[in-house]
Design goal:
Keywords: Amino-acid transport, Signal, Transport. By secondary structure, the chain is α/β, with parallel strands linked by helices. The chain has helices at 2-24, 41-61, 83-95, 107-120, 149-162, 177-192, 211-218, 231-244, 261-265, 287-301, 309-326, 331-339, and strands at residues 26-34, 64-65, 68-78, 100-103, 124-126, 142-144, 168-173, 196-202, 224-228, 249-252, 274-278, 343-345, 348-350, 363-369, 372-379. A 7-stranded mixed β-sheet has the order 8-7-9-10-11-14-15, sandwiched between helices. A 6-stranded mixed β-sheet has the order 2-3-1-4-5-6, sandwiched between helices. Strands 12-13 form a two-stranded antiparallel sheet. The chain is elongated and about 70 Å long.
């Protein structure tokens, strides 16, 4: 009789302890937004997987904040690279009372969404939006972990003149916040070096036929064609350039600088024909860490890193570190720690200036050989 009564009693005690432990565990919700549908879904999924990798590692470590064990949860939303869908996704995360947001991928979705997060007092770190306007709005909640278009486009413009010896350049942009921004900065950099902009054409981020604008450009005989836009458009554009016999070098920003470009362009991608820049860069000292990250990412997701997954991973880790330093996941309490963070990540050292831009942002220049992306240089 005594033994049979002890069994439920022991169970009740164990349950009570489990309940107490559960009560001590805090759930911290991190939002992530990127295009998981549409033409650049491969880039959005790459970013989301970077966030998932960080969340899983944090939970495996058993992080504590303010003396409480924390369980991180990822709330992932799809913005389809569309500004309206992006603001709807942002409001959904605000309504879900997330503690912070990583995203969005595109400048065109990041900029309008940033006001929603700012008004709600929720910190936002973009891992890939490069338009300078994002951090020029005066929002103390907005940060980015990559260089902006002023650095990226300007560097490419100077490279066209100094290294490619270009005299005449044609420029195409897709009319998005990102495409226009990087094209404008490229032109500034190129003009400052005496390069002649012989043509300026426009398309959109869903276009597939470029024959009219490319025919007009061909007549100008440019040394370089610069495209402000994403790889899903750049690939078909390269195919049509080849069909029209345009032998110019092809340049672009981080939007085209992906592993997927080779597949999208097919046999139209000649060796050393493309020069592009990633709005981030790993110095020699970080190479081993980045190689390990890529290997672990491949093992976990059975997919290669496209471009910005490591920056998303670092952004999540930076946000979690700020919470730990503040002993709180309350946005109002950890935001000051985020603003003054100094974090050594996979992608390098992360610290922000008073606008929320990364200090001493680096760029990596790439070309393609044999259908593979090949590094040219890491520059500041």
């Amino acid at each position: 009789m005594f033994k049979t009564k002890m069994i439920p009693l022991a169970g009740a005690i164990a349950f009570a302890f489990a309940g107490a432990a559960s009560a001590q565990e805090e759930v911290v919700r991190i939002g992530h937004v990127g295009p998981i549908s549409g033409a650049i879904a491969h880039l959005g999924k790459d970013n989301e997987n970077g966030a998932r990798m960080a969340i899983d590692e944090l939970n495996a470590k058993g992080v504590t904040i303010g003396g409480k064990k924390v369980k991180f949860e990822l709330l992932a939303e799809d913005d389809g690279a569309d500004p309206k869908q992006g603001t709807a996704a942002a409001q959904k995360l605000v309504d879900a009372k997330v503690h912070g947001v990583i995203g969005h991928l595109n400048s065109g979705t990041t900029i309008p969404a940033s006001k929603i997060y700012h008004d709600a007092g929720i910190p936002q770190i973009s891992p890939s939006a490069t338009n300078p306007k994002y951090t020029q709005q005066g929002f103390k909640s907005a940060f980015r972990v990559v260089a902006n278009d002023g650095q990226l486009g300007g560097t490419l413009g100077r490279y066209a003149a100094d290294q490619l010896k270009a005299k005449k350049v044609a420029v195409i942009d897709d009319r998005t916040a990102y495409g226009q921004g990087v094209a404008q900065e490229f032109m500034k950099g190129a003009k400052a070096k005496g390069v002649d902009i012989v043509a300026q054409q426009y398309t959109n981020d869903k276009a597939t036929d470029f024959n009219a604008i490319l025919t007009a450009i061909k007549a100008k005989q440019p040394d370089v064609v610069f495209f402000g836009g994403m790889d899903a458009v750049a690939g078909p554009m390269l195919r049509q350039m080849k069909a029209l016999g345009i032998n110019a070098k092809f340049m672009g920003g981080d939007g085209i600088c992906t592993e997927a470009l080779a597949k999208l362009a097919g046999d139209a991608l000649g060796d050393n024909q493309v020069v592009c820049a990633e709005a981030g860069g790993v110095q020699e000292a970080q190479k081993k860490g980045m190689e390990d990250f890529r290997a672990n990412f491949k093992k976990k997701f059975n997919a290669d890193v496209q471009i910005y997954a490591p920056y998303v991973y670092d952004a999540v880790m930076v946000m979690a570190t700020a919470m730990q330093k503040a002993n709180s996941s309350d946005p109002k309490k950890y935001l000051p720690e985020l603003a003054k963070i100094n974090y050594q990540g996979v992608t390098g050292n992360i610290a922000f200036d008073n606008k929320g831009d990364i200090k001493e942002g680096t760029l990596t220049l790439y070309t393609y050989k044999g259908g593979k992306r090949e590094q040219l240089a890491v520059v500041k």
